[in-house]
Amino acid sequence: MDVNGGRRGGLLLAAVAVIGVLVVVLAVRGQEPDPPPAPKDVGSLDATATPSQRPSQRPSEPPSQQSAQDPVGPASAQPLGPSSPVSISVPRIDVSSEVITLGTTDDGILEVPQPGPDLDKAAWFDKSPTPGQPGPAIIEGHVSTKEGGPSVFFDLARLRPGDDITVQRQDGTTVTFEVYAVRTFAKDKFPTQLVYGGDLSTPTLRLITCSNFDASIGHHTGNLVVFSKLTDVHD
After folding, report:
1. Which of 27, 82, 124, 188 is the least buried, fewest Cβ under 10 Å from its Cβ?
2. How many Å separate Cα 197 from the centre of its chain?
3. Where exactly are the structural domains of the chain?
4. Closest Cα partner for 132 from 82, 191, 72, 180?
5. DSSP 3-state assignment of 82?
6. How far apart are CA 197 and CA 178, in angstroms?
7. Predicted pLDDT at 105
8. Is pLDDT of 13 > 60?
9. Integer Cα distance of 190 and 200 in angstroms
10. Pairing between strand 149-150 and 144-145?
């Protein structure tokens, strides 16, 4: 992968045109009969605020209308070059998963983990930066499946500002991200630019799964997005 900012920005903007299908595809693999409750929006999309400074949300505007930019601010950790993620750990919700790599199908639809040995693994979207590179890295995962019940991101809604997400990269480095916001969006109003765009110079990470299961129609109607920023790098 090229670390050139212009090229990376171009790839992200091109990907945004087809990424909206994620909000539908993550829900079409069957659903757990007893899904987690609808998550609450917490934190502020101001990535420079400390957890104690972050309100649950800005009362003057709904979460979906907040800024699509991740403020640059003082960096807690320097950006890295490209290296694919191999595993992810989220201690608060006891998640420890291998990370597979997925792209888009021939029809331009974002791939998701399929039935088989990779179904319940987290997946990095290969048109996004690798975790630690400038820009928003995207890691997705099922909330539940017919085949196995609760999946890798079943408890993602429990994350709160200040929680850590650790990703092991192929080059041997370990990068740690701090959660600063959790948001739920209706699938038919998914803010693609907010989630997949924003500041392309700051290393950030988004975790995405489905939410808001509607028993009357048999699938989820929302997407849960966890926003986090790079805070530490270890060899």
Report:
1. 188
2. 12
3. 5-234
4. 82
5. coil
6. 18
7. 82
8. no
9. 20
10. antiparallel
Residues 6+ apart with CB under 8 A from 31: 144, 145, 146, 213, 218, 219, 220
Alpha-helix runs per DSSP H in the chain: 5-19, 22-28, 192-196
CA angle, corner 88, sides to 70 and 71, nearest 5?
Answer: 5
Residues linked to residue 124 through DSSP beta bridges, in sequence order: 101, 139
Contact 117, 161 (CB under 8 A): no
Cα-Cα-Cα-Cα dihedral sign, residues 31, 16, 140, 148: positive
How far are the Cα atoms of 108, 186, 219 from residue 190, in angstroms, in the given order? 18, 6, 16
How far apart, in whole angstroms, are the C-alpha atoms of residue 149 and residue 75? 39
User: Are 22 and 111 contacting, i.e. CB atoms less than 8 angstroms apart?
Assistant: no
Token digits for 88?
């992810």
What are the C-alpha distances in Å from 169 to residues 29, 159, 217, 230?
28, 22, 39, 14
117-170 pLDDT, tens digit per residue, is: 999 999 999 999 999 999 999 999 999 887 778 999 999 999 999 999 999 999
Rounded Cα–Cα distance for residues 167 and 3 (Å): 19
CATH code of the domain made up of 5-234: 2.40.260.10
State the pLDDT at residue 36.
65
pLDDT of residue 216 exceeding 50: yes
The token duo for 179 is 């959660």
Please tell me the distance from the alpha carbon of residue 47 to that of residue 178, in angstroms, as a whole number. Answer: 9
Reduce the DSSP state of residue 28 to 3 states and report it. helix
